[in-house]
Structure formats: C-alpha cells, structure tokens
Amino acid sequence: MKQFSQDQSYKDPVCGMEISPMTAIEVYNYKHKTYYFCAAICREAFEAEPEKYRHHHRQHGVNPMGKQEVPQRADTVNDQIKERE
Questions:
Q1: Using one digit for the tens of pLDDT, what is the confidence trace for 24-39?
Q2: How far is CA 11 from CA 16, 35, 49, 76, in A?
Q3: Which domain holds residue 23?
Q4: DSSP code of 58?
Q5: Are 21 and 38 in contact (CB under 8 A)?
Q6: What is the CATH number of the domain that holds 42?
Q7: What DSSP character marks residue 57?
Q8: How far apart are CA 7 and CA 16, in angstroms?
Q9: Rounded distance, CA 18 to CA 37, Å?
C-alpha cells in the first residue's frame, strides 16, 4: 500500500508544473486516481479531455514524443496583455 507523503510532488498533467498536495489549487479524481493541478484552467482542460492528458505507456500506441497543447495560466496571459500595452 502506498504511503501518503506531504513532501511528495506531482506533475500537473496539463501544464507539467511540479506541485505538492499542499500547494495544489485544484484536485480531480478520475478512474480511481487523484490528479493535482496548479490552476483551475488546467483542471478544466483535463476535465474536458482527460484521456488527452493522462500518462499513457508507450506500448499502448501513444507517441511519447508527441506534443500536447497546454492552456496558458491566467497570470501568464495577463502578463502578455500588459506587455502589449
């Protein structure tokens, strides 16, 4: 049985950011697994298309070098808007 550690970090499946259960902004359970997210936009993207963001093993036919579109976090978008002004 796996032990829960507060020091353990997880990767946001949408943007790839390393987060811990203590710092996660959003949490979502899918197919008996808990996913941690850095922002609501990442959880929403995962919730809309979970199979797109779940980690798949190579033998299941997923290209490990394939690129995925990652939604931008709101603070990044706001910074880009400020730069244009």
A1: 999 999 999 999 999 9
A2: 5, 9, 17, 19
A3: 10-57+67-84
A4: G
A5: no
A6: 2.30.170
A7: -
A8: 18
A9: 9
